[in-house]
Design a protein that fits this description.
Elements lengths: L7 H12 L1 H9 L7 E9 L4 E3 L1 E6 L2 E7 L10 E12 L1 E6 L11 H7 L2 H17 L2 E6 L8 H10 L7 E4 L4 E2 L19 E2 L2 H14 L5 E4 L1 E2 L8 E2 L3 H13 L4 E5 L2 H10 L3 E4 L5 H10 L2 E3 L2 H10 L11 H16 L19 H8 L5 H15 L16 E5 L12 E6 L2 E5 L2
Parallel strand pairs: 1-5, 6-7, 7-8, 9-10, 11-14, 14-15, 15-16
Antiparallel strand pairs: 1-2, 1-3, 3-4, 5-17, 12-13, 17-18, 18-19
Helix pairs in contact: 1-2, 4-5, 6-7, 7-8, 8-9, 9-11, 12-13
Bound molecules: zinc ion.
Zinc ion binds next to loops.
């Protein structure tokens, strides 16, 4: 595993710990003001196009200027960072993470939900947040705490207050499931904590959506289908009326809804209800993708999750036939591509290692026929557009100085995304291997 240099801000924290808690608190609340920087990479990818020989000026937490080196002079007092052989990109946006989960081959999902304390899970999440940021992902849509209540709201606050390093988060909190449809399930005699909040019917649904928003949800996540019993295929859970009510209630509060769905009927109901993205979509058909396209609903295919789970279940990648699940995914992705449905990019990271986020990008290029350019556009300007993040996802004056420099050119060679040399979030340098 690649080792990153420790973020500069954390070095300050260690010092603060040595010098006493007053300094630590002061630093936590007001980290060193970001300086004026002139970044000189080999090329700038602005979110759409690669520009060789461009430079970027960062002032405070914003991008001040971008353009050909000859047209931009360094502001007085600017620190120059030469980034030879590197491409400077907008900070990457992870479309589907669970900071409160860790890989299922370490601990099964059931055991994480039932046997791991909230404190343990939060402590892990702080490490996960750091790994995510240092992998170049300066924003993440975190789609459900999976039994850890509202802990994602606290993790987000800790990042915003500079207590721990991590990406800017959009959090879903508990997520909504129809009663009886989710897990863990032990026996009929024992009610155990569930991985999401159960809600049904008009009153129950309205109350649950409002409760989650009141406690800090930036968006609502709903499970439109799931397997009702062990070993069963997924089937729809919420009715059309229930899904529509979830979207109406959330929308009135300015929150988008995202749906977990992998059956055609679950995807159809979620689309008609007005969700903004459908997560997974493994059983999507040409008709469903056409409907999604018509309604402007994006597909977040999470191909890395299926790839990881298949390996946890014994598939030896590169040997033997592809598991049926992945064969099905390949076919549905062909249909999705053909339909022209908008693609959001997110891997369901947490199922696999946090910090390994670029696995999704690599698989989309290596196994699903996407070009590296399309994927890098998707992870920057594309995800920003789909998630309504107008202040990031591109390198333009006035936008947040969330930037990542990687060795090589990821618009041609997607594996270059792994070669992270520098991460800036709000103008603050988090890694710099020089
Ligand atoms: Zn997920």
């Amino acid at each position: 595993m690649k080792r990153f240099s420790f973020p500069q801000r954390l070095r300050g924290f260690s010092l603060g710990l040595l010098l006493g808690s007053t300094l630590l608190t002061a630093q936590a609340q007001s980290p060193a003001a970001p300086a004026t920087l002139l970044l000189r990479p080999a090329a700038v990818f602005d979110g759409e196009t690669l520009h060789a020989g461009w430079v970027v000026v960062v002032e405070g937490d914003r991008i001040k200027a971008v353009g050909p080196a000859a047209t931009i002079s360094a502001p007085v007092g600017a620190r120059t960072l030469d980034l030879p052989g590197q491409t400077l990109l907008p900070g990457l946006i992870e479309g589907h993470s669970h900071l409160l989960l860790h890989p299922y081959n370490e601990t099964s999902w059931n055991d994480q939900v039932l046997q791991e304390s909230q404190a343990l899970r939060v402590a892990r999440a702080t490490a996960h947040a750091r790994h995510t940021l240092l992998a170049g992902y300066t924003t993440a849509r975190d789609l459900g705490s999976e039994g850890a209540g509202y802990a994602d709201v606290g993790v987000k606050q800790a990042i915003e207050q500079g207590i721990i390093p991590g990406p800017r988060l959009l959090v879903a909190t508990r997520a909504l499931v129809a009663t009886g449809s989710y897990g863990p399930k032990l026996s009929v005699d024992v009610d155990v904590p569930q991985g999401a909040q159960e809600a049904d019917g008009t009153d129950g649904i309205v109350r649950a959506v409002r409760e989650q928003i009141g406690k800090g949800a930036d968006l609502i996540k709903v499970y439109a289908d799931y397997r009702w019993g062990k070993g069963e295929p997924s089937r729809p859970t919420f009715s059309q009326e229930e899904l529509t009510l979830i979207v109406q209630t959330a929308r009135a509060a300015g929150r988008p809804v995202v749906a977990h769905a992998s059956t055609p009927e679950g995807m159809r109901r979620a689309t008609l209800a007005g969700v903004e993205t459908i997560e997974h979509g493994d059983g999507g058909t040409p008709e469903i993708f056409k409907l999604m396209k018509q309604r402007g609903v994006a597909l977040c295919p999470t191909v890395a999750a299926g790839d990881a789970i298949s390996q946890y279940q014994g598939w030896k990648k590169g040997q033997g036939p592809m598991p049926e699940r992945l064969e099905q995914k390949r076919l549905s992705m062909q249909a999705a591509r053909k339909s022209g449905v908008i693609i959001a990019i997110g891997g369901d990271v947490g199922v696999f290692q946090h910090g390994d986020n670029s696995r999704e990008a690599e698989l989309l290029v290596q196994k699903y026929g996407f070009s590296a350019l399309e994927v890098v556009q998707g992870q920057t300007s594309g995800n920003a557009r789909i998630f309504h993040l107008q202040d990031r996802g591109r390198i333009q004056p006035g936008l947040l100085a969330d930037l990542v420099a990687v060795a090589g050119d990821p618009t041609r060679q997607i594996t270059a995304l792994r070669q992270v040399k520098l991460v800036l979030k709000g103008g603050v340098v988090y890694t710099n291997d020089k």
